[in-house]
Amino acid sequence: MLKSVLILLLLSVSIFASLNKNAKAENIELHEIEDIKAKKSMNDWLDSRFGLLPHYVNYLLPFGYTEHDYKSYEDSDKYGNSEAQIQVSFKINIGNDVFGLDEKYYISYSQRSFWQIYEHSSPFRETNYNPEMFVVFPISDHSSNLHLRSVTLAYSHLSNGQGQTHDESIYTYPYQDPDNRSRGVDNFYLNFRFQYQTLITDFKIWTPPIEDKDRSDNPDIMDYTGYTKLKFSYFKDENMFTLMGRGNPKTMKGAAEATYSYPLINGTYFYAKVFTGYGESLIDYNNNITKFSLGFSFSR
């Protein structure tokens, strides 16, 4: 356990160091280079500019606590109630203004990992992979106080990368194997973004899973996640607060999440998060979890 904690702390230090590093401190001189395009390419390389932008929040949370131990799906897995959580999320702009609406096209990739660093052998309990393709339509609405600023249309895939663990000769569709660790869902979603001064409001609605429900490893996932999400992001001075809620009114299940961030140095933020409800991760989509996490974020 101590080794894993030290690794995580070293990872934090290395991230801080990389954020504090000035790329041009490499002592590479460009002013005498006559090839303008080569000069720009070298400058972009030195400054690590390759068009990647943050998508969802990028964070490293070394300390996360929940009241009960996490569920184990194998006899060899023994999970505790404290763990680290890491999220990496980026997007790249691949096109603009195809229909003359000033729209922007993106592809993105996000990965969230849950690391049991305080347990023996420090296993990764769960990792969720989330590639997306989406288009953002800017809107200039001045008809109300809650101005509509953009509409996003997206296709999203979310899975935990686990293979089938059930015997198809025994289990029939839909699968009812409680030990099956495979999870996945594909859907389309719309996100409406509004602004009132320093308050940003996102209202997201998504379709049922695109895949055949009878062949799904999680056919009842919408009972726990619902079809809609409402998120508020509020800025006060240098502080940022968010509050998110989603759910299914029919089943009365869902989740809520609150976060707080404050800038430290060079694009690094103190980050705190409280989550309660269903769907913190795919493996736990039908488990009710309340969790408090502390650490750092590297985007907002």
Describe the structure.
There is one protein chain. This protein folds into 2 domains: 1-50, no CATH class; 52-297, Beta Barrel (Outer membrane phospholipase (ompla), Chain C), CATH 2.40.230. The chain has 3 helices and 13 strands; from the N terminus they run H-H-E-E-E-E-E-E-E-E-H-E-E-E-E-E. It has helices spanning 2-20, 36-46, 221-225, and strands at residues 52-54, 59-66, 82-96, 104-115, 124-138, 147-159, 184-196, 199-206, 228-236, 239-248, 253-263, 269-277, 289-297. The chain has a 12-stranded antiparallel β-barrel with strand order 2-3-4-5-6-7-8-9-10-11-12-13. The radius of gyration is 22 Å and the shape is globular.
What descriptive keywords fit this protein?
13 strands, twelve-stranded antiparallel barrel, mainly beta, Outer membrane phospholipase (ompla), Chain C, 300 residues
Structure, briefly:
By secondary structure, the chain is mainly beta.
Could you tell me the strand content as a percent range? over 45%
- Summarize the amount of helix as a percent range: 10-25%
Structural class comes to mainly beta
CATH superfamily of the largest domain: Phospholipase A1
CATH class assignment of the largest domain: Mainly Beta
Q: What is the domain tally? A: 2
Oligomer: single chain
CATH architecture label of the largest domain: Beta Barrel
Low-confidence stretches: 19-25
Terminal CA distance reads 30 Å
Number of helices: 3
Mean pLDDT metric? 85
- Under CATH, the topology of the largest domain is which? Outer membrane phospholipase (ompla), Chain C
Order of helices and strands: HHEEEEEEEEHEEEEE
Largest sheet: 12 strands, antiparallel, barrel
Radius of gyration: 22 Å
